[in-house]
Design brief:
Belongs to the UPF0415 family. The protein is α/β, with parallel strands linked by helices. The chain contains 14 helices and 10 strands. Helix content is 41%, strand content 17%. The radius of gyration is 22 Å and the shape is globular. It starts with a helix and ends in a 9-residue tail after the last strand.
Length: 367
């Protein structure tokens, strides 16, 4: 890359930070915490990463649609690799990804989905660029696993999960975000002992609303004893290894036991289309058996949505199908079983409460 161009790009990026720090210095108000909360660490990490061989461009803007655009930190490998550099505190990243953030804050998972969506829109040599997230301060195990499952290549130190409530606010980097793939596979987690979220202490919740991810996980060959394969796709191979270590089907069986299983027509139709087009013989048979124990209702069953859910805007990770499925569950007072964490994070920014149980595994594709 042309070093003069690199100098111009980083001069522009650093100007705002420089002006702010210069103002504080003149007023003799500068403090150490102000330096740590500036973009200096992030920009320093960007410079270090950019000086590596093969960099083609930095801070390149791509348009996702007429209203949204995305800034790609570093483009390298002749355009085949997109890299985002993250210098934030690992605990802060984990807390943000679990919804412990102020209104409007976007997690690293949201940003990852933005990168992946944008990469699909701008293929290089007829293939979507590889997306790398480089964590210069490290990343906790469970969050790294979630990123890997959705297709992001993670670089940096993988740290044990903290599982603490410590204050981990950190502003050293400015935050930039159909179904989200999700997996929590930390060594400290024992899935056999994890109670379904929102169920304990609520014996009156006897109806479960299944979304597409839940039904896919229930009938997939991978979750039904056929997980010892090496796939061409690294993501599927990783999912297979996690399934071998901690089987998902027993978790769903325990969750479903004694419950009334329902879904809306949109969810079932989309699930059935996927199975018919891509499913194997045994997966189709399991889907047929599942249909015998699931009651399918019209999307508008049980009347209109309440005001807040009527006003839930379809945008970003709030997709129309997900909105229909979750609103259906709310109207019939059922707990929605879903791995669609992207929708939940986005919807909870607009709606105060959503009743759901998030199954702690990825959306397993049929194989």
């Amino acid at each position: 890359m042309n070093l003069n161009h690199l100098y111009v790009e980083f001069t522009y990026l650093m100007q705002d930070t420089y002006n702010l720090l210069l103002k504080l210095q003149r007023n003799k108000m500068i403090k150490l915490e102000q330096l740590s909360c500036s973009n200096l660490r992030h920009l320093g990490a960007m410079v270090d990463r950019t000086l590596k061989p093969g960099v083609l461009a930095v801070c390149k803007i791509f348009h996702i649609n007429d209203e949204s655009k995305l800034l790609i930190d570093i483009i390298s490998d002749e355009g085949k690799t997109w890299t985002k550099v993250i210098a934030r505190n690992p605990k802060s990243l984990t807390a943000l990804s679990t919804g412990k953030a102020s209104y409007g804050s976007r997690s690293i998972l949201d940003q990852a989905e933005d990168y992946l969506e944008c990469a699909e829109l701008y293929p290089c040599m007829y293939k979507s660029p590889k997306v790398i997230f480089e964590f210069t301060s490290g990343i906790e195990q469970s969050l790294a696993n979630k990123l890997k499952v959705i297709g992001v290549h993670v670089q940096g130190d993988i740290l044990p999960d903290s599982h603490t409530g410590d204050d981990c606010n950190d502003s050293s980097e400015s935050t930039s975000s159909d179904e989200e793939l999700m997996c929590n596979n930390s060594d400290e987690n024992n899935f056999e002992d994890v109670p379904p979220q929102c169920i304990q202490g609520h014996s009156e919740l006897t109806t479960l609303n299944l979304d597409v991810t839940a039904m896919m996980a229930y009938i997939s060959n991978m979750t039904n004893g056929h997980c010892n394969y090496i796939f061409k796709q690294d993501v599927l191979t990783q999912q297979s290894a996690w399934e071998a270590e901690r089987p998902v089907k027993p978790i769903l069986d325990r969750l479903f036991e004694g419950k009334t299983l329902v879904c809306c027509k949109t969810a079932w139709d989309d699930f059935e289309t996927i199975v018919e087009n891509l499913g194997g013989t045994m997966e189709k048979k399991r889907a047929s058996n599942l249909k015998k124990i699931v009651t399918i209702f019209p999307d508008d069953h049980n009347g209109p949505n309440d005001i807040s859910r009527q006003n839930l805007k379809v945008r970003g990770h709030v997709r129309l199908r997900s909105k229909i499925i979750f609103n259906f569950g709310h109207r019939i007072k059922a707990l929605t079983v879903s791995a669609n964490e992207g929708f939940l994070r986005a919807a909870l920014q607009q709606v105060n409460n959503i009743s759901f149980t998030r199954h702690l595994f990825s959306w397993f594709g049929i194989t």
